Amino acid sequence: MPITTCIFDAYGTLFDVAAAARIAASEPAFPQLVDTWPTVAEHWRLKQLQYTWLRAITGAHTDFWQVTQDGLDWSLEHNGLGDDPALRKRLLALYWELQAYPEVPAMLHTLKGAGLNTAILSNGSPDMLNGAVQSAGIGDVLDDCLSVESVGIFKPDARVYDLVGQRFDCARDEVLFVSSNGWDAAGATGYGFTTAWVNRAGEPMDRLPWTPAHVLSDLTSIPELATA
Asked: Which of 34, 40, 124, 172 has the least CB density, counted as fewest CB within 10 Å?
């Protein structure tokens, strides 16, 4: 069946998760980040994701904002910055204002112009997603922001992917699901979505039972895939 609905992961896919640390490092108040911000950002993201998996497996769900704070605290301590409350406060504030990747607005406008449904499906809490969407100025080209909070478990649990069909009344093979996380794209492939992995960093394919249908370096060609 033709694609009717394009669904995007949020963090790392539409929004640059490294932007918070990068911006803070450019501010005079935080010279300690000038050389360490890439490592701080990498560790922050890694722990954030690991904590979602562990909480999903153990049934110890909490919202993504708590996981985000926990991941940052681990990263700051690991990088010798755990005793700097001002830095912590600034990084968390910036996470509510993450920058979208440059190609995102035009890509979404093209999809909407082609008559496709567009939405976010994210581990993020509704408030966090709303903040990022408003900051990036892309609310007018998204039909919805679907959050795992409505089912109380993180991706890649199938109940999260179920939200798409419930919201848009579409079959699984009508959905193009786009994520920068290889494991997320793989999980959505196993679920039955057509998938695109946005592999900006050129990472190896995850060793999982499923592989994404498409591997891209950015989001520019998503409208072409969706309307092919």
From this structure: 34
Go through the domains of the chain in sequence order and give each one's CATH number.
5-15+99-227 (3.40.50.1000), 19-95 (1.10.150.240)
Three-state secondary structure string covering 116-168 = CEEEEEECCCHHHHHHHHHHHCCHHHCCEEEEHHHCCCCCCCHHHHHHHHHHH
Q: Letter for the amino acid at 22?
A: R
Whole-prediction pTM value? Answer: 0.96
User: Is the pLDDT reported for residue 134 higher than 90?
Assistant: yes
**CA dist., res. 162 & res. 156, Å (int):** 11
User: Are 10 and 178 a contacting pair, CB within 8 Å?
Assistant: no
Return d(Cα 105, Cα 14) in angstroms, integer.
Answer: 9
Find the catalytic residue in 9, 63, 140, 143: 9
What is the DSSP secondary-structure string of 93-113? HHHTTPPBPTTHHHHHHHHHH
Active site residue 9: yes
